[in-house]
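B., you asked whether I could sanity-check this one before it goes into the benchmark set. Here's the sequence:
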Amino acid sequence: PGQQYEDPYGDWARLSEVSDSGALLVRPDGYVAFRYATTAGDAEELLGDAVRRILGHG
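And here's what the prediction gave me:
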């Protein structure tokens, strides 16, 4: 957590189906709660919207 991650062979992008410009939210139990393969806009805003929906606030 909080550290840079390098993926020189592209394994993470291929397995997660999320590009460098995408966004992914994974719960502590490993369940993928939110995924955007690529984001046309602000990833922070998209994640915020996803968290609000997951928590029933949006």
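One thing to flag: Strands lie at 23-26, 32-36. Otherwise nothing jumped out at me.
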